[in-house]
From TrEMBL:
Entries under PANTHER family matching the protein: METHYLTRANSFERASE (PTHR43464), UBIQUINONE BIOSYNTHESIS O-METHYLTRANSFERASE, MITOCHONDRIAL (PTHR43464:SF19)
Any one Pfam family match given in the protein's UniProt record, by short name: Methyltransf_25
Organism ancestry: Bacteria, Bacillati, Actinomycetota, Actinomycetes, Kitasatosporales
SUPFAM superfamilies: S-adenosyl-L-methionine-dependent methyltransferases (SSF53335)
Top-rank lineage group of the source organism: Bacteria
Gene Ontology MF terms: methyltransferase activity
GO BP: methylation
InterPro entries with a match to the protein in the record: Methyltransf_25 (IPR041698), SAM-dependent_MTases_sf (IPR029063)
Entry keyword set: Methyltransferase, S-adenosyl-L-methionine, Transferase
Domain spans labelled Methyltransferase: 51-144
Protein's recorded name: Methyltransferase domain-containing protein
Amino acid sequence: MTGKRDRWAELTGGQAGEEYARRFARLAASGHDVHGEATFCAALVEPAARVLDAGCGTGRIAVRLAELGHRCTGVDVDASMLAVARRQAPAQEWLLGDLARTDALGLEPDFDLVLAAGNVIPLLAAGTEAAVIGQLAAVLRPGGLLVTGMGLDAAHLPLPEAPFGLADFDAWCDRAGLTLRQRYATWSGDPYVPGCGYAVSVHVRPDR
């Protein structure tokens, strides 16, 4: 999320950390697989990959990726979410920051994969999307991947309508020097077809 008045802050007031964590704990307790995003990302990278979880929230995905042997950094602007992440995994790196200004966090351009799951991009402040994607692309190493998951309609978003379309998103990625490699309809890898309500996209920063 970003430090401007983003859509996430408008929905939650920046106080959703504990309830968000309880929601996923209930899902896990009822037998749901809550690690789909981590499993998907782990299949794309080599062991001990450097991963940035952008808009990491309570750290659910970054903690799981660390358990799988990857080196994970989480960034979020919501302090209530990061408080949960730090409590659950105090040894991991958790950074409070604006995704539109990740350059201010001193991150090196050595990440093998940058993840923006959980509708991070649609819930940014309006007008900051291209800047955020540019910032995330800038910390990828050549050949690194930007992986995003987002709803494309009201049924898959906590919003009355999608704030932009996939054509806009792909144009922002292209402007940031990223190339679309794969697109799916779910984190399980179901094929994407036009009209799907959700898209999991894998963009690559080409080798120079």
